[in-house]
Write a structure and sequence with these properties.
Restrct_endonuc-II-like; Endonuclease_DUF559_bact; 133 residues; DUF559; Endonuclease, Chain A; 5 helices; alpha+beta
Length: 133
Amino acid sequence: MALRIDPRLGDFARTLRRVPTPLEEKLWHHLRSSRLGGFKFRRQIVLDPYIVDFFCPAVGLIVELDGDSHDAQADARRDAALAARGFTTLRFTNRDVGENLEGVLADILRKASSLPPRFTHPPAPSLEREGGL
């Protein structure tokens, strides 16, 4: 059975994927297609009730890229809620990515490599997406 998400969140996540910020696009170039240490990342993924910037399902790592308008207290509450569900969040500023991309990538790889795998076997494909039921 496929997981159901709030359709409004799904629509908004699709919009975010279509029009990334230049720095999100820059970071995504290095995370996509398992380019960073073989870790598969997805972008603008719904983890209800949130949309996360980048997510590695294999180890439950969330990478957030924060602009100037982020609220540190709200981010802390969100990170705690996601941590309670078993996810680890790394946050970087736009400035970090713009001025120190190699350092950001090294931090992400270090953290991803230190986390235990969430699956002992590959997850089963979604029957809905694979043309099944």
